[in-house]
Amino acid sequence: MNSRFGKVGVLYGGQSGEREVSLMSGQGVHEALVKSGVDAHLFDTGRQSLAELAQAGFDRVFIALHGRHGEDGTMQGALELLGIPYTGSGPLASALAMDKIMTKRIWIEQGIPTPAYAEVRNAGELDDVASRLGLPMILKAPHEGSTLGLARVEQADALVQAWQQVVRYEPVALAEQFIRGRELTIAVLGRGEQARALPIIEIIAPQGNYDYEHKYFSDDTRYECPASLPADLAAEIQALCVRAYRVLGCEGWGRVDVMLDEQQRPWLLEINTSPGMTGHSLVPMASRAEGVDYTQLCLNILAEASCKVPLNPAQPA
Question: 136: cis peptide before it, omega within 30°?
Answer without folding.
Answer: yes
